[in-house]
Amino acid sequence: MRARIALNIKSVDYEFQEENWLVSKSELLLKSNPIHKKVPVLIHADNPVCESLIIVQYIDEVWSSGPSILPSDPYDRATSRFWSAYIDDKWFPSMIAFFFAQEEDAKKAAIAQMEEGLVLLEEAFGKCSKGKAFFGGDRIGFLDIAFGCFLGSLRVIEKADGIKLLNETKTPSLLKWADRFSSDTAVKELIPDTDTLAEFGEKLQAKMIANK
Amino acid sequence: MAGECVQFLGFWASPSALRVVWALKLKGIDYEHIEEDLLNKSPLLLKYNPVHKKVPVLVHNGKPVAESLIIVEYIDEVWKQNPLLPQDPYERAKARFWVKFADEKVVPDMVSTFMKTGEEKEKAAKAARECLKTLESGLEEGKQFFGGEAIGFVDIAVGWIGIWARIVEKLKDVSLVDEETMPLLHAWLQNFLEVPIIKECIPPWDKLLQHNKGYLVKLTPDST
């Protein structure tokens, strides 16, 4: 989803190939990403680019005449990269831990970690947005994309467990940002329906548990 | 650059701090080195990196940047001399890919090799060698460095892995960067560590060995 949002922001025409990787991986995927054998992969002029945030930066650098995805100031760029790395390396693992937790205690611990992270991201939003609508300012930027792609999964957890991970008390700015992000033209058709995503999540969970 | 204030919070044995030191030296940047005692972290470190509380941190005109690879990209963007990342977007994407691969695949297997013993150690070393062999495919035959003719982002990011591989090989009696099966990677490591500006930043070999031996003793009290 990150790559597609970036392509939409830049108004780049692209051919989308859905990979049904839970079942099997296509020849093209295995050839384009032989090392990790994973999506997403962007193929541009026969050159494959792998890893979602690397793809987003690539898109930003190639289609430089479109709206910028990374900020122009090096310090702001470093800040965007820092929080994106935090999301991928620290926050997202706690979401994974929640999905695979089988006992209540483990689930509660994962939720607590996610909530702690969201409080940090709420603070980061305040600093990065500088009073504007998105982490990137007036428009969706790198950090919006990095974090926003998880909103679908957040909603799955909220619906299934009846908790409000984004809420008025602890994350009021992120709550409003989430609506703005989801309804942005570059994003709105890409966020999966909560029930469809929940169903996919169950299949994935079953497969992972079976493989252990 | 006149009027710039650059401070660097590091720890002598930290591999990620070494990445930043190499970048600073390659760019010829003047900076104040602040050595951190990781067992007794300074208020300055906790103030400048409240999220992770780790080194390295670069403080440029009072503004902190944390996470070694993010710092290196920041340095490359602010100080334009001796570019570390390639200009071409596809080459940049490849460079970032290899660095991520090294950190996420090579390093964990090397850590396992370091921490385990017996059969498990051998299994981990085999996995590490496979990842190192894959990493080797990022090197172009005929070019000295991952960056081509000059040291680049990947060399700086991955260089410490080569140093540490030698330490693990010595302390754990395993082979990691094997000359026979990975001739290009082996040659790259030899060349890279001998480049004067790189070599002078590496802590003394004996001190590094002793420091890492210390970890081994803590992990496996029966090991020598």
From TrEMBL, chain A:
InterPro entries: Glutathione-S-Trfase_C-like, Glutathione-S-Trfase_C_sf, Glutathione_S-Trfase, Glutathione_S-Trfase_N, GST_C, GST_C_Tau, Omega/Tau-like, Thioredoxin-like_sf
Compartmental location: Cytoplasm, Cytosol
Sequence ranges assigned to domain GST C-terminal in this UniProt record: 73-200
GO cellular component: cytosol
Residues annotated as domain GST N-terminal: 1-67
Record keywords: Detoxification, Transferase
MF terms (GO), sorted A to Z: glutathione transferase activity
A biological-process GO annotation: glutathione metabolic process
Pfam assignment, any one: GST_N
Keyword Cell cycle: no
Catalytic activity field: RX + glutathione = an S-substituted glutathione + a halide anion + H(+)
Enzyme Commission number: 2.5.1.18
CDD domains reported for this sequence: GST_C_Tau, GST_N_Tau
Membership in a protein family: Belongs to the GST superfamily. Tau family.
UniProt protein name: glutathione transferase
Lineage: Eukaryota, Viridiplantae, Streptophyta, Embryophyta, Tracheophyta
TrEMBL record, chain B:
EC number, UniProt record: 2.5.1.18
Annotated Gene Ontology cellular component terms: cytosol
Gene3D superfamilies: 1.20.1050.10, Glutaredoxin
InterPro entries: Glutathione-S-Trfase_C-like, Glutathione-S-Trfase_C_sf, Glutathione_S-Trfase, Glutathione_S-Trfase_N, GST_C_Tau, Omega/Tau-like, Thioredoxin-like_sf
GO molecular function: glutathione transferase activity
Record key words, sorted: Cytoplasm, Detoxification, Transferase
Location (main, coarse): cytoplasm
Residues covered by the GST N-terminal domain: 4-83
Gene Ontology annotations of biological process type: glutathione metabolic process; toxin catabolic process
Signal sequence coordinates: none
Catalytic activity annotation: RX + glutathione = an S-substituted glutathione + a halide anion + H(+)
Domain GST C-terminal: 88-215
Top-level lineage group: Eukaryota
Subcellular location: Cytoplasm, Cytosol
Function recorded in the entry: Is involved in the conjugation of reduced glutathione to a wide number of exogenous and endogenous hydrophobic electrophiles.
UniProt family annotation: Belongs to the GST superfamily. Tau family.
Protein name as it appears in the record: Glutathione S-transferase
Organism (species): Rubroshorea leprosula
Highest classification ranks of the organism: Eukaryota, Viridiplantae, Streptophyta, Embryophyta, Tracheophyta
